Each structure stands twice: as C-alpha cells, then as structure tokens.
C-alpha cells in the first residue's frame, strides 16, 4: 500500500510540474501574440502619421508655390 501511495504521489507531482510548464508556455504564446499585435498597431499608426505629414508638407509646398507666382 505504501508503494502505491508513493507512486501516486510521484505521478501527481509530475503532472502538476508538467502543467506548470504548459501554463508557462501558454502565457508566453499569448504574450508573444499580444506583442506582435501591439507592434503591428504601432507600425500602422506610424505609417498613418507619416502619410498625413507628407500630405501636409505637400499642401504647404503647393501653397508656397502658389503665392510665389
């Protein structure tokens, strides 16, 4: 009976230990996906800002050219 209890205790410990590793892997996976989403959103925002800045610069240049003539 003692041997059975020891075997069950070791099995339970191993299962809990593996579950912890599995949870860590899941958290890392979610964290990586979230970081990728944030990076993508930042890149899109930067592209939008750059595009707006370029359009504003072009409008300013056009207005300057129009006033020179």
Write a structural description.
With 69 residues, the protein is mostly helical. It is 97% helix and 0% strand. The chain is rod-shaped. The mean pLDDT is 83.
Biggest beta sheet summary: none
- Show unreliable segments: none
Helix content: over 70%
Rg = 30 Å
- Beta percentage is under 5%
Q: Distance between termini?
A: 102 Å
| Mean pLDDT rating | 83
Shape: rod-shaped
By DSSP, the count of extended strands is 0
The succession of helices and strands, N to C, reads H
Determine the structural class based on helices, strands and strand pairing. mainly alpha
Number of helical elements? 1
List the helices and strands and how they pair.
Layout: H1 2-68
Quick structural overview:
This protein has 69 residues and is an all-alpha fold.
Task: Tag the structure with descriptive keywords.
mainly alpha; 0% strand
């Amino acid at each position: 009976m003692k041997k059975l209890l020891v075997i069950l205790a070791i099995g339970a410990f191993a299962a809990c230990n593996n579950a912890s590793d599995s949870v860590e892997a899941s958290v890392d996976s979610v964290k990586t996906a979230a970081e990728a989403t944030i990076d993508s959103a930042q890149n899109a925002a930067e592209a939008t800002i750059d595009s707006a800045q370029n359009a504003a610069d072009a409008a300013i240049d056009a207005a300057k050219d129009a006033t020179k003539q």
